[in-house]
Amino acid sequence: MAVDEKQAAAELQELRTQINGWRDEYYTRDTPSVTDAEYDQKYRRLEELEAAFPQLVTSDSPTQLVGDALLPDFGKVEHPVPMLSMGDVFSLEELGGWIDHLNADAERDLDYNVELKIDGLSLALEYTDGKLVRASTRGNGRVGEDVTANVMQIADVPMTLPKPLTIEVRGECYMPKAAFADLNAKREAAGETTFANPRNAAAGSLRQLDPQVTERRKLATFIYTLMDPDKFGVTTQDGAIAYMASLGFATNPSSQALTSLADIDAYITRYTSDRDALSYGIDGIVVKVNSLHLQEELGATVKVPRWEIAYKFPPEESATIVRDIEWTV
Ligand code: NAD
């Protein structure tokens, strides 16, 4: 990267404008005009330049922001614990470097919980005395959209828990592949624009003004985060998933506690070839430090937790990116 500071400043300005425009299309309007691979490539270049010229990082840089603007039609929900984004790697070598670094700091080989990275959008569910009282999107990480009425239409979200717990869980709301194919076929037959991918279809379907539309879209969830785990005597990520499953939440059956990079590599290989056979989309796998106390100790940057990383699969987007989709339809 043989650029001087002046050239870097100009390129950074251009990248910020371009990427922030794409973020608005993707997060706020659910209408991406470029593929995730294209986005990730530009984002990496932005990160590289900012690492070389840290004095040029600005507060409106996409590297400092989670998600994007909130849709005005929904109530706002503050997240006392922010809902963050996630760091990512694109090769086993990079993943190995991330693991080595954490193991070296801990002076031992840590246990990791390895999960599928579901291609949807984050959702927070709050229960009081065992009753679902509020559901919200990630939004900009600190404030999300209140989508309670719509989430009440998702079949696998429990309205009532088997115990009168006051609890918050978080996870992914997604559109199964079959529902996505069906929705796009109907839209095409009706002469409407189709959704670019299941992730955008899920986001557009969850953020609807009419909960009946959400109901017809056949959304589903996988729940993977337990807030305040100490309160429930849970100390590990795999324990949290088992506990949430016991409460009736939909959890993904493929997560596994693993230690060595070789085992994680085998998991990646397996799901790289099995992903087409799954009934839902995944865009990678997530590796999380299994100890929840250690997760808390490691904390987060302004944008991503330090205790988890996404290994992203190579691009596989064959769907045509379309413009002009109305998110409200
Ligand atoms: P991300 O989607 O890469 O990763 C973070 C998210 O992963 C979490 O918020 C959570 O919702 C989800 N997730 C799924 N399975 C999970 C699991 N098992 N455990 C924990 N989290 C899980 O990050 P992001 O900030 O939501 O989005 C950034 C990505 O979105 C980019 O890398 C790019 O691929 C895509 N994007 C594309 C465009 C575009 O125009 N095409 C624009 C913006 C973003």
List keywords for this structure.
alpha+beta; 11 strands; binds nicotinamide-adenine-dinucleotide; Helix Hairpins; 19% strand; four-stranded antiparallel β-sheet; five-stranded mixed β-sheet; 329 residues; D-amino Acid Aminotransferase, Chain A, domain 1; 36% helix; disordered C terminus; DNA ligase
Named CATH topology of the largest domain: D-amino Acid Aminotransferase, Chain A, domain 1
Given as residue ranges, the uncertain stretches (5+ residues, pLDDT < 50) are 318-329
What percentage of the residues does DSSP assign to strands (E)?
Answer: 15-25%
User: SSE order, as H and E?
Assistant: HHEEHEEEEHEHHHEHEHEHE
Number of H- or I-type helical stretches? 10
The outline comes out as globular
Look at the structure and name the CATH superfamily of the largest domain: DNA ligase/mRNA capping enzyme
Binding site for NAD(+): 36-40, 85-86, 115, 138, 172, 288, 312
Active site: 117
Keywords: DNA damage, DNA repair, DNA replication, Ligase, Magnesium, Manganese, Metal-binding, NAD, Zinc
GO molecular function, one term: DNA ligase (NAD+) activity
Explained architecture:
The structure is a single chain. The protein has 329 residues and is α+β, with helices and mostly antiparallel strands. It folds into two domains: 5-64, Helix Hairpins (Orthogonal Bundle), CATH 1.10.287.610; 84-312, D-amino Acid Aminotransferase, Chain A, domain 1, CATH 3.30.470. 36% of the residues lie in helices and 19% in strands. It is built from ten helices and eleven strands. The strands form three sheets. The chain has a five-stranded mixed β-sheet with strand order 2-11-10-3-9, sandwiched between helices. It has a four-stranded antiparallel β-sheet with strand order 5-4-7-8. The chain has a two-stranded antiparallel ribbon with strand order 1-6. The longest helix is centred in the first third of the chain and has 24 residues, at 5-28. It is globular. Residues 318-329 have low confidence and may be disordered. The protein binds nicotinamide-adenine-dinucleotide. Nicotinamide-adenine-dinucleotide binds next to helix 1, helix 2 and strand 3.
